[in-house]
């Protein structure tokens, strides 16, 4: 039996993908950085709307803030592949790589396993004991959805900030 041991290599902090921020992450990180929420959001995040197809011709746009990346596609909080906010990193970062996709998408899991030294050192049969992290991430996502719904899907209202025009991420249901 082998456990996941994060080597803090920074592989999950670069390349494709984004670190999604929940309102609690934004509040906690901005407080730890001793800056107003608006300043943190302006300086370190991107605002996106993720398009979700709900039914025939019906779309829902879910707002998210994500951590920005530099010109090398590296997280803005990565300093030579070391996370400068590791002690208070976002929920999404804390649960990576053990999110739902890890257990439901074989191709994605294989790609992660090729890059992540912590996964490389594990036996595949030992992944099962980390399903609770994926379930916790799913629960957090559901709670986020409820908060959004209660606030008319308005992140500005939830965080009491002003946001720029969002980047719209189009859902691709053809996969």
List keywords for this structure.
single chain, 175 residues, alpha+beta, 4-stranded mixed sheet, two-stranded antiparallel sheet, 8 helices, globular
Global mean pLDDT: 90
Order of helices and strands: EHHEEEEHHHHHHE
**Helix count, DSSP H or I runs of 4 or more residues:** 8
Calculate Rg over CA atoms: 17 Å
Strand order in space, largest sheet: 1-3-2-6
What is the general shape?
globular
Distance between the terminal alpha carbons, to the nearest Å? 34 Å
Describe the protein.
A four-stranded mixed sheet has the order 1-3-2-6. Strands 4-5 form a two-stranded antiparallel ribbon. The longest helix is centred in the last third of the chain and has 20 residues. The chain is 38% helix and 17% strand. It contains eight helices and six strands. Helix 1 packs across helix 2. By secondary structure, the chain is an alpha+beta fold. The protein has one domain. The model has no long low-confidence stretch (mean pLDDT 90). It is globular, with a radius of gyration of 17 Å.
What is the strand and helix layout of this fold?
Layout: E1 20-21, H1 23-32, H2 37-44, E2 45-55, E3 58-67, E4 78-79, E5 82-83, H3 91-95, H4 100-104, H5 106-115, H6 117-120, H7 131-150, H8 155-159, E6 167-169
Parallel strand pairs: 2-6
Antiparallel strand pairs: 1-3, 2-3, 4-5
Helix pairs in contact: 1-2
């Amino acid at each position: 039996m082998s456990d996941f041991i994060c080597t803090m290599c920074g592989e999950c902090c670069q390349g494709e993908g984004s670190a999604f921020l929940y309102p609690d992450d934004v509040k906690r990180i901005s407080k730890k950085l001793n800056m107003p929420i608006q300043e943190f959001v302006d300086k370190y995040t991107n605002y996106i709307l993720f398009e979700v197809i709900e039914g025939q011709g019906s779309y829902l746009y879910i707002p998210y803030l994500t951590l920005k990346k530099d010109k090398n596609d590296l997280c803005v909080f990565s300093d030579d592949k070391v996370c400068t906010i590791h002690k208070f990193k976002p929920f999404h970062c804390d649960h990576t790589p053990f999110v739902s996709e890890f257990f439901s998408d074989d191709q994605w899991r294989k790609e992660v396993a090729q890059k992540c030294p912590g996964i490389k050192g594990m036996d595949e049969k030992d992944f099962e004991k980390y399903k609770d992290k994926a379930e916790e991430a799913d629960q957090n996502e559901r709670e986020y959805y409820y908060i959004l719904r209660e606030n008319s899907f308005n992140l500005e209202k939830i965080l009491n900030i002003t946001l720029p025009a969002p980047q719209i991420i189009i859902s691709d249901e053809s996969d």
